[in-house]
Amino acid sequence: MAPDLNSTKDLFVFLGKSVFSVLEDMVFTLIPKPQKNVAGEIVLITGAGSGLGRLLALKFASLGSVLVLWDINKEGTEETCEMAQAAGATRVYAYTCDCSQREEVYRVADQTYKAFLPAMIANDHGHLVCISSSAGLTGVNGLADYCASKFAAFGFAEAVFAETVAQKHMGIKTTIVCPLLINTGMFEGCTTKFPSLLPVLEPEYAVRKIVDAILQEKVYLYIPRVLYFLVFLKSILSSKIATLLCEYLGIFNVMDGFVGKKKKD
C-alpha cells in the first residue's frame, strides 16, 4: 500500500511542478526574465583572441566581470585584453593556452583557478557555457568531422547539466548554445537558400543573444529561433519526409560555396 501512496504522491508533485513551470514559461514569454548580476564574477573565455570569444570578452567587460582570457594566439589574446580594459574592465588576465592539450590547460589553470567544476561544486556557484552549433543538433553533409565534435560538445554539456541537477547543485547553471552559421569567416562562402528564415548570423547579434541567455540562466539557446521548430520536426517526421524538407530548405547545399577561413597575409 505504501509504495502506491508514494507513487501517487510523486505523480501529484510532478504534475504540480509541471503546471508551475509551464505558467512560469508563459509569463517570461510575455515579460523579460530578470537578468543576474555578473559584476565581479570571474568569466573565463576560451578562444578569446578573436571572433566570438573576443566579442564575448568585450561584452562581459562592460558588465563589470573579472576576465580570464585564453587563446593559443598570444598576440590576439593580448589585443583582446587591451580592448577589454578600454571597454571598462578593471581586472583582465590573458594567458596563452592550447585547450586541445590537457597538460596545457592544467598548467594555465594553476595560474588562475584549477579543477573548475569541482571548485564550482564545492562552492555551489558557477555557470558553464558550451558553444555548440546547429551542426550539433543534426548531421550536415560535408561537415562530418565538425558535426562529430559539436555533437560531442552538446552531449557532454548536457550530461554535466544532468549531473549537477541530480546531485542538487542548484547554484551551478548551464547554458548550451547552438547557433546556425555565424559570419566570423570560419564558413566563408556558405549561404542558405532562405536567408530570411535561416540567416547567416552577424557575430554581434549572436553574442548579444548568448549573453542574454547566460544572464537569464537559459539552459538551451538555439539561434535563430526557427531551429527549435526544426529540431521538433526532426523528432516526429519520418526520415524520408525529413530528407525532403532538408532538400527543400537547401540544407544539403549549404557547403557548396565553402572556401574556408581566409588566412592573414
UniProtKB/TrEMBL annotation:
Gene3D superfamilies per UniProt: NAD(P)-binding Rossmann-like Domain
SUPFAM superfamilies: NAD(P)-binding Rossmann-fold domains
InterPro entries tied to this protein: NAD(P)-bd_dom_sf, SDR_fam
Name of the protein: Epidermal retinol dehydrogenase 2 isoform X10
